[in-house]
Design brief:
Quinone Oxidoreductase, Chain A, domain 1; Rossmann fold; 2 domains; seven-stranded mixed β-sheet; 15 strands; globular; binds NADP nicotinamide-adenine-dinucleotide phosphate
Length: 312
């Protein structure tokens, strides 16, 4: 099969098309013919320096990156799915799974039937980003109706799911984005959009119960802590928060590390089916162009998601 294989840490050029064996599947696994693969910031971080995956990647190179998969089951060693089922999954994360390929071996208990209304491209955009939003706001923060929630990077992959989940739960949602994304976010139901390029978020926003800090750690000081009410919760998507830092602001913090969860993904799929959550695709690339997809995402101004498609 064809796959874009990462040869070493480095720029997009370390991803090269190769012919490699179709993966073997073990008990409880599916062989999925990949139709589309979602791209996430961890993909370009893993490729360039490894980030939190450095140690495991060093041992597995050459390796096939990518964790978000939408495709068709072509072999099944599980009672959960039949050949021909259309599934989507966040597979094995943070272990290597190999979405940038024509086929991938996927644990059946991490896969979910795709919502019937979705294309493969749309379905591949969902798992990692939407599960991050769900595990942050619903699982960790136990978001409640009427709470005031600040979502940073709201126009991005995680953010655009987070604002819709927060609105579904009945929260009052304040979102940060550049001015050109204001209309987009209002169309998703956001109550207030703050243009972080022109406004001082820490001075403008107050009395927040939950902040989704989908930004670099050094922005906590200016853009997140000052916004929280006493006892409020900061959800950090990028690394741990020292306890003394949270105490200084009389607030709480939790670090999020997304993991596969088929039950949660099925719930998200139901919300998509019901029209409560919509998927925005910024653009799609072919498998050969996955390095370009990394470069675009690394520019940090994607609206919604980027996916790679794999033709028959
Ligand atoms: N811990 C975990 O499990 C986990 C899981 C997923 C993601 N993450 C991390 O969470 C972050 C967001 O992920 P993502 O997939 O949503 O990324 P993304 O799609 O690349 O986010 C792009 C968005 O970020 C916005 N943005 C850039 N700088 C901003 C700033 N200073 N203030 C507000 N918005 C800003 C941009 O909005 P404009 O174009 O309007 O400027 C753009 O829409 C990444 O750093 C990622 O590594 C962590």
């Amino acid at each position: 099969m064809k796959a874009m294989v990462m040869q070493a840490f480095g720029g997009p050029e370390v991803l090269q098309m190769e012919d490699v064996p179709v993966p073997e599947i073990g008990a409880g696994e599916l062989l999925v013919e990949v139709k589309a693969a979602g791209i996430n910031p961890i993909d370009y971080v893993a490729r360039s320096v490894g980030g939190p995956l450095r140690d495991s990647l060093e041992k597995s190179l050459p390796a096939i990156l990518g964790w978000d998969i939408a495709g068709t089951v072509s072999k099944s060693n599980s009672d959960l799915f039949q050949i021909g089922d259309k599934v989507f999954t966040l597979s094995r994360f943070p272990q290597i799974t190999g979405a940038y390929a024509e086929f991938a071996a996927v644990p059946a208990d991490q896969a979910v039937l795709m919502p019937a209304s979705l294309s493969f491209e749309e379905a591949a955009a969902v798992p990692l980003a939407a599960l991050t939003a769900w595990q942050s706001l619903v699982e960790t923060a136990d978001i409640q109706a009427g709470q005031r929630v600040l979502i940073h990077a709201a126009a991005g992959g995680v953010g655009h799911f987070a604002v819709q989940i927060a609105k579904y739960k009945g929260a009052y949602v304040i979102a940060t984005a550049s001015a050109h994304n204001a209309e987009f976010l209002e169309s998703l139901g956001v109550d207030e959009v703050i243009d972080y390029t022109a406004q001082d978020v820490g001075a403008e926003v107050s009395d927040i119960d939950i902040v989704l800090h989908a930004l670099l750690p050094d922005l906590r000081e200016s853009a997140s802590w000052p916004c929280l009410k006493p006892g409020g919760l900061l959800l950090s998507l990028l690394g741990p928060v020292p306890a003394e830092e949270a105490a200084k602001y009389n607030a709480r913090a939790a670090q999020i590390g997304v993991r596969p969860d088929a039950a949660q993904l099925a719930e998200i799929g139901k919300l998509i089916e019901d029209g409560v959550v919509k998927i925005t695709l910024d653009c799609t690339y072919s498998l050969e162009q996955v390095g370009e997809a990394h470069t675009q995402l690394a520019g940090r101004h994607t609206r919604g998601k980027i996916v790679v498609t794999i033709p028959e």
